[in-house]
Amino acid sequence: MTEDFDTGQLTVEELREIVPQLQQLTEKYKRSEHIQRALFDISELAGSISELSRLYAAVHEIIGQFMNAQNFFVALYEKDDEFVEFPYFVDQFDENVIKQIPAKDLLGGIAGYILKSGQHLVLSEENFESESKKRNFKAIGKTPVDLIGVPLKRGNKVIGAMVVQSYDKAVRYVEDELDLLLFVSQHIVNALDRVKSRELTEQTIRERTKQLREINDELQDEILERQKVESLQKALFEISEIAASVEGEMADFYASLHDILARLLSAPNCYVAIINEKNNSLEFPYYSDELNDFVKSRPLSNGLTEFVLRSGRAELIDADRVNDLTVKEQLDQTTISSMIKHNNSWIGSPLYVDGVISGVIAVQTYSKDAKYTIKDLELLKFVSHHIAVAIERKQSAEAIQKYNLQLSRKVRERTDELHQTNLYLKKQIEERKEIELKLIHEAHHDALTDLPNRAMFNSRLELAVANKNRYPEHQFAVLFIDLDRFKQINDSLGHHTGDQFLIEVSKRISKCIRAHDLLARLGGDEFVILLDSFDDFSDVEEVANRIIQTLAIPFTFDNKEMFSGASIGIANIEQGYESADELIRDADAAMYQAKALGRGRFVLFDTSMRQKLLEELELENEFRKTLNEENFDSQIQAIVNFQTDAVIYYEFFVRWIHSTMGKIKREKFWKVAQSSGLTVEIDNFMLDQAVKILQHWKKLGDNESSRKIAINLSINHLSQSRLVNQIIDRIKAANINPSNLVFEFDENELNLRSQFMLPAIKKLKRSGVILVLDNFGSGLASLSYLYSYPFDYVKIDNKFVKSVTRSKRNYNLIRSVLAISSQLSFKLIAEGIENKEQYNKLVGAGCILGQGHFIESPINMTTVLEQNSFPARKNIS
Question: I need a labelling partner for 703 at 20 to 30 A (CA). Which of 91, 94, 401, 684 fits?
Answer without folding.
Answer: 684
